[in-house]
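Deliverable D5.2: sample structural annotation.
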Amino acid sequence: MSVSADWVEGMSRFRLCPTPAQRAALLEHCGHARFVWNLALEQWSMWPRSKGPAPGFAEQCRQLTSVRLMFDWLRAGSQTVQQQALRDFDQAVRNFYGGTHRRPTWRKAGLHEGFRIVGSQASRIVKLNRKWGGVLVPKVGWVRFRLSRPVPGAKSYRITRDRAGRWHIAFAAIPPPVPAPGTGEVVGVDRGVAVSAALSTGELLSCPGLSEREHERLMQLQRRLSRCRRGSRRRHRVKAAIARLYARARDRRKDWVEKTSTDLARRFDVIRVEDLRVAQMTRRPKPKPDPARPGSYLPNRRRAKAGLNREILANGWGLLVQRLEHKAPGRVEKVNPAYTSQTCSVCRHRAPDNRKNQAVFRCTACGHRAHADVNAAINIAAGRAVSARRETPVQVSPKREPQHATSA
């Protein structure tokens, strides 16, 4: 089983608390690592096939030594950080050719701020007291971090800075999977927008987000941002305030996903979910050219689709299944979502009229009443490939499989 590096490091992430001088030094390390990564990416992307294979890690390290002699600002940085950026890029290229990861992309300032330390220097960690620990960063010194949990034994760590300006240190340590209870119980999980996750047991789980007051604050900041002059300090402060609100919502979503996935992995032996392609579902709608007026376009409901995409991502559909697969490997089954929202979980009668609205399900054949999402979750738990509520009856051809959809 391939384990995501983001999940491994996210499970052992700690809040880093550098001093103002250390923050400036850490930002320089981030800039050097980003510069070296982008330089290696440019060389790899533009390398002509007539010259043979592109330079590997060893050759790029020799080239880095020459570049450091040319630029004083790069030579003032840590060679360990810069060489590790080259090693990470080499591994990213190998993963791309191996078919396990996407093509390496450019790293942008303010968005990809971080670097990694591997080797003997990564083991220089001390416990200062019950609440604080210290890590030795090359050319920065000892930096304190909050001991919110025991520090795992790891041979590398990554220091990152998010958009809200918070620093974190993450140790690469793979946590053990959650053991199965051994009761043989099966649960179905139906993901939606109004209800984040509905279980076949009747439980309705909602992912927390920003409060109404925080939403109002976000709208005020966005209006203020539209009036700020580009490049001004005021615009920078407003963007930082908006980033802090988004970071707060993201932290709440991740916390809910972690707690929910751990609870499901501990309570049930088999967890069945809909086989949804969230990345494809949240794409922007393509423009529709108007054949009657060349150069013009027909309405494609992009505003409504953008709102639906935000709700899907805010409810953590993909993240929840990803965490379940990590914590309960081999116990997560994906079910074809076709018509789970239209089918009665008692008599298995399927009709578009069964689902009266988003929350109410009433079977037109047997009269069974239930919450629509819970009824769909029961069908998922049963493994019935029988998804979404549609406005008109669906005619299923015997030679063609029904189209996948979601039960939002």
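Annotation notes: The chain is about 40% helix and 15% strand. Residues 385-408 have pLDDT under 50 and may be disordered.
The annotation will be released with the project's public dataset once the embargo ends.
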